[in-house]
Amino acid sequence: MLVRVPTLYVPRYPTPPLSFPGVSVAILKVAQMGHPVLRRVAEPVDPAAIRTPAFRRVCQDLLDTMDEYDGAGLAAPQVHLSVRVVVLTLDGSEGPEVWVNPVLTPLTDRTSATYEGCLSVEGMRGRVARPARIHVRFLDDEGAERAYVLQGFPAVVAQHECDHLDGVLYIDKADPRTLAFLPEFRKFGRMDEYEDAPPEDLDDEPELGDAVIEVPADLSAAEALALAEPHLLSSEEE
What we know:
Layout: E1 2-4, H1 53-68, E2 73-75, E3 85-88, E4 97-106, E5 111-118, E6 121-131, E7 133-139, E8 145-151, H2 153-163, H3 170-173, E9 180-181, H4 182-188, E10 211-215, H5 221-237
Parallel strand pairs: 1-10
Antiparallel strand pairs: 2-3, 3-4, 4-7, 5-6, 6-9, 7-8, 8-10
């Protein structure tokens, strides 16, 4: 479900300037766990750089690399670029997006626990509990400030990718009892199915439906939630 609320807002981000040398290859090498770039806090991007040819080349290479590896998202640090940029697909009908300098805010104490994998942690899966509803504000690939309220799987994808910008991998947040190598995961299934007691990060409440709701970027997280609430309720009913 995608609801777009029109907005007119001029972004002002006091971020330091960065240079983006041209990258000639379209499919970039993905850094693996253990490489220092995956543990750094990435640098913010100067909004003035967003519409330059060099930065557009970086964004296109990120998109090409994500597509090549059939990922739901990819963060710049995963391809050895320590800047605050992610590409991701929230809604298949809308296609991939570029987020620059994203800022995430949880909107609920409820969590959604899903099994995650990562191109930078090859061959593993593990269950991660994350806030089920978030607000995100970012600059798009034209430099315009935009914002979403996300719920369900889109919220998971956004949090997974944006964690990379702060040097965090999903295995840092995963329940270690659920970590499995991919061949065993495919053969035996989810490790929590073998537990005698239900996982602590799961509750009896019904899962929240998936939702991607665009809201005016000048609203606070609380104001954005109030605006999006009717659409979130309808997504749960679906």
